Amino acid sequence: MKKLFWVSVVIAILAAFFASTNPDGLDFISEKFAFAEKGQEGSALMAGYNLKFLPAGGISTSVAGIAGVLITLGIFWLAAYALKKRDDRQSNRLACFLILMLIAASPVFAARPLVTDDFGTVDSGRYELEVGYNAETPKVGGATANCAVVQIKRGFAYNFDFGIEAPYATTAPTGLGDAILHAKLKLMEQGENNGLTARVDVKLSNADSASGLGSGYNNYTAMVIYSKAFGDFRTHYNLGYTLVGVAAGAPEANTINYSAAIEKEVTGGVDVVAEYYAVSASAGSTGNVQVGGRWQAFEAIRFDAGYSLALNDNSSNIVTAGLTAEF
Amino acid sequence: MHIPDGFLDPKVSAGLVGAAAAVLALSVAKVREAITALKPAEALATAGRGMSNMVGGMKRVLTGDGERTIYQMGMVAALVFAGQMFNFPINSGTSGHLIGGVFASVILGPFAGAIVIAVVLAVQMLFFADGGLLAIGANIINMSLFGTIVAYYIYYYLKKYIPEWMAILGAAWVSVPLAAFACALELGISGTIPFERVMPAMVNVHMVIGIAEALITLVLVNVFRSMLKGGE
Question: Does A261 touch chain B (CB under 8 A)?
Answer without folding.
Answer: no
